[in-house]
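Researcher: Quick one. two chains, 642 residues in total.
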Amino acid sequence: MTGDRRFGRLLLSPITLLYTLLLLAPISFFLLLSFYEYTAFEMYRPNLTTANYDRLLFDPYYRNIVYRTLRIAATTTAFSLLAGYPLAYFLARHAGAWRGVLLFLVIAPLMSGVIVRTYGWIVLLGSEGMVNNLLLFLRVVDKPVQMLNTEFAVILALVHILMPYMVFPLFSSLAGQDPNLVRAAGTLGAGRVRSFLEVTLPLSRPGIVMGSVLVFTLSAGAVVTPQLLGGKDMQMLGQTIYELILTVLNWPLASAVASILVVCQFSVIFLYFRGARRGATA
Amino acid sequence: MVAAILKLTDVVKRYGTTLGVGPVSFAVEEGEFVTLLGPSGCGKTTTLHLIAGLLQSNEGNVEIGGRDVTGVEPQHRDIGLVFQNYALFPHKTVFDNVGFGLRMRKVPRGEIEARVTRMLDVVGLPGVERRLPRELSGGQQQRVAVARALVVEPKILLLDEPLSNLDAVLRKRMRLEPRDIQKRLGITAINVTHDQEEAFEMSDRVVLMNQGRIEQIGTPEQLYDAPASRFAAEFIGEAVFIDGRVVALNGTGAEVEASRGFRFKGVPRADGVKMGDEVYLLVRPERVEVSLSPHDRPDSVRATVIDRVFSGEQVSFIVAVESGLKFRAKKPSLNAYRDVAPGATVWVAPVDCRMVPRGP
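Model:
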């Protein structure tokens, strides 16, 4: 019994080591750094201050970036869920022999790089792009619509790129359900919609939570997609960190931005999981 | 004659081009407990799902309570179904599980509470309303599933192998429970199982199925005593078959000669059997009389015990009569048979033998 437990701990030791060295240590470092004073010559001086956070929360430029990031991440999550749920439902319930092929197609985008996929959207959405050409040809519009460098383009591309992260948790929570449950609801007098709302949807809650958390955190931390499709005016927190570290060389402020991002992500995860647990015991 | 509450007429279900079930026809009277019995893949569950409306037939029709429900969705068929794995909603309490059907029928809240409480009383589970299904034992889950199916007062209760998820001991104990509830409420029930003993103990009538077709319909006694085919005889109870030929016929009885000249006398005549027909002779091992002296029965013949198998409440003998014909006899393990060992001489008399027509 105790030997078993010791062996169990042994199995966890590589991941513990990895997390301590590569995650906890750097996080602690930049957390500390975010409270240090910035100077132009030495970059940081170990004097504790909240100046970096003050700047983020009260300077409208940075505050806007925080809001924009949260807004884009929330919208992306909502649309991923709306588009991903029917897809996952179809894959789990109706795909039959095609399930394997379709699941492969869902993962396929992950196999090409994020930059390639983003350039794909530039080709589609540009003012000379395919979408505008089609709209002009169909005479829906009479001059090209501005689509690149908008929040719309960023959200669209993020929904596309992050779709597998939404679909897979949903798929497994739907495929794991006993098909007899919906049949039972049917024999008890529930129609298709009622069965879905009473049985399928509540039982897929773990998938909804997991998929949403993944998509929210990944889109809140996105760098390349907003950079290429959003342009200068659509900056998000990820790009800000990147710029502050590599171009501006203000690591304390970059650390504060990163801390804010991590706090936002973790509070969303926390709220979601707490909600999920409450839902499960209600 | 009581009106048929369920009637299947020439129902056929195909999967692509392969035949699943059919054509199947039978009727069930109000208040009956009928079991669909057969080996796995015989189409018994498919037939049940056709009655429930979970599957739709390709041909034929299904009537419930005098109404043609062919093509009607399950929620409009007025049936209650207990699934093999119970299919209780894992995220809902026992109360919400049992009350689900009433809620779907827009029954007022107060009445739902009263009816759920009463039904949980009927199945012997009072006071578990607030629990989740996973907090109950297998037997309790089964009762909740029965309560959930019955609370909406369906015309027919359908049971899809309701005992197969229970362990062997519980399974035997729970066997009479669905029937007990069914008789108390006076409802009609259709059960599915592959276990012959279970089918016999639970049912008023049994529908024996094989390869998508009905092999025989009858009371358990009819199926056991007068099997219509070799399959029926083999699937139900233990059976020994001896090849034979009809050598004499009178009114209702016949004399059948087995290989090597051994003759069985007074075998009830099966329908359509003529002089000289090749038939199977069905010997039920527990109906072979075994005695230690020739004087107990005038019709007994001398035989030698070849093997003896003791299984607790019963003991089986393989015996060979003088012509060399061998068969099995199964007796209660009474003291009288204690000393009958291989090599011993006994007198045997196969009684209640049946003639089973040889199929084409």
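Chain B touches chain A through 25 residues (CB under 8 Å).
Researcher: Thanks, that's what I needed.
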